[in-house]
Amino acid sequence: MGEYFMVVLLDDYRMSKIRGTGLEENIKYMFGGELRLLEVKVNEELKDKILQEFDTARVDSRGAITDVPVAFMRELFNQVVEKKSLGPEVVEAVLAKVDEIKKAAEKESEYLPPPEIE
Amino acid sequence: MSRFLIQRPLPHGGRLVERVVTDKEAAKKMIRGCPSYDIKPTLHYETGVPVRNVYREIMSICYGFFSPVEGSMKQAEVERILKERRLLNEWIFPYPLVFDISEEDYKQLGVGPGDRLVLNLKGKPFAILDIEEVWRIDNPEELAHLTFGTPERNPEVVREPFNKKHPGWVIYRSLQPVVLAGKYTIINEPKFRPPFDRFWYPPRKSREEFDRRGWRTVINHQTRNVPHVGHEFLMKCAAFTGDVEPCHGILVNAVIGVKRRGDYPDEAIVEGHEAVNKGGYIKPERHLPTIVLWDMRYGNPLESLLHGIIRQNMGCTHHMFGRDHAAVGEYYDKWATQILWTKGIPSYGFPAPPTDVPYGLDIRPQNMREFSYCPTCKEMAYSETCGHKREKLSGSFLRGMVAEGVQPPAIIMRPEVYKVIVKWWKHFGYPFCNEKYVVNKEKELEVDLEDL
Lengths: 118, 452
Ligand SMILES: [Zn+2]
Description:
The structure holds 2 protein chains of 2 kinds.
Chain A: E1 4-10, H1 12-18, E2 28-30, E3 35-42, H2 44-53, E4 58-59, E5 65-66, H3 70-83, H4 88-95, H5 98-107
Antiparallel strand pairs in A: 1-3, 2-3, 4-5
Helix pairs in contact in A: 3-4, 3-5
Chain B: H1 24-31, E1 36-38, E2 42-43, E3 50-52, H2 54-62, E4 71-72, H3 75-84, E5 99-101, H4 103-109, E6 116-121, E7 124-136, H5 140-148, H6 167-173, E8 178-186, E9 191-192, H7 203-213, E10 218-223, H8 229-238, E11 249-256, H9 266-278, E12 287-293, H10 301-314, E13 318-321, H11 336-342, E14 364-367, E15 371-374, E16 379-382, H12 395-403, H13 415-428, H14 435-444, E17 447-448
Parallel strand pairs in B: 1-6, 10-11, 10-13, 11-12, 13-14
Antiparallel strand pairs in B: 2-3, 4-8, 5-8, 6-7, 7-8, 9-17, 15-16
Bound molecules: zinc ion.
């Protein structure tokens, strides 16, 4: 019945994508304001689905779902921007691409795309 | 002069071991007519994956990092180490170090005491082993257990029996049965590939570098990690120890050797530490990142003893030790290293700390707890002085952030350090060591050799 969530970290690049979505006011801060993040709501049913689909996934003591593949986390951010929302429909949209994510996750142990910084 | 001034300690054993012949003509003469053997990696006894390369031990012995050890150990010496962590010449030392080969190779070589064996590395003559004794490891599993300890025999610090999940235990379990004991001499100096070449400061050179920089007191920071800001604060703040003045220098000494999947690449580790001084977070005049070759045994207190020996030999006056020093898993008490250096561990042969037993060490331990960000103090705060609730940074949180391609904020990781991670990420296609990196590294090693 509890409230679950997933953390979306925001660096400068991601901040630029968030601007104008109306989500700015939901940003939370850590480390003296230096770490910005959003929390995406996850309901009971979606939490169970995530745990069932990804056996590395865990729920920590605060109710945060962690240790899912990087591909999941990247898609989570994409869907936040696309849906301009932090509601359960975001994770729902991510899970709609579960096969694609699993395929990417398989390759993650050997390859991860580097960020585009100089 | 103040009577409190601390002087640089002598090398462990009183003098630096240096067994490197630099004159190629002399070297050629030394090996004329001698049988030779191609150094093979130690392979995991079950999976066949490389877990150690003895070339790293030969390098560390011959350049003096492990002074006063001079070669592959005789049976009596190994037995003494396992019983009381002492060499036959009395000086303390934590681990057996041997040149081990298979029965088949031994038969084929047909060598024995009195023979000189040329050891080839990557197809080139590299070192010689003057054989004094041939002995056998009858039971490698027992050797592995005796090396690290058991909860029954070492109740002060061992919490779980060692097994194949422990990489150090696996190294000893995987040794070949025939030991050729005797002194090593390098006869063809390997050349480090970039970026490792500029971090190579074997003990004589590091002592000369300390002189050049006017460093009388130097504190060592052990690493096998890319530094985050927590590490940086440990380095800086531990350096406020010293004597009348804070330590003159911070020596970062990265252990370079066989990697495990998920570690950061060695290239990123050394350049990441360098980025800390390039970025001015610790100024270059006070900071020197260096390397030592060693396949980590992860023996926590025992590993800390080896670290103390290496860094005393390099000329350090102090050594910083943190939580879970050189540990993996939950085999040891997480403060086992601190226990060793504050009161000793009798079951390992230390009724007193290694600095307080005969033939012990002179390097001073600096035991540290942790730094993390405090939103109230608004700074990186020390766990033992800050009375607030701090925002702890877990290693897995940071790794997750990196893997996701999100740049950590500067209060967690300096942007210069992150850039180094990304540089090697682009190079290897992965931010951490993947299977390919691990396999390649043991094939190519850190060095190349010229013809003799
Ligand atoms: Zn505080």
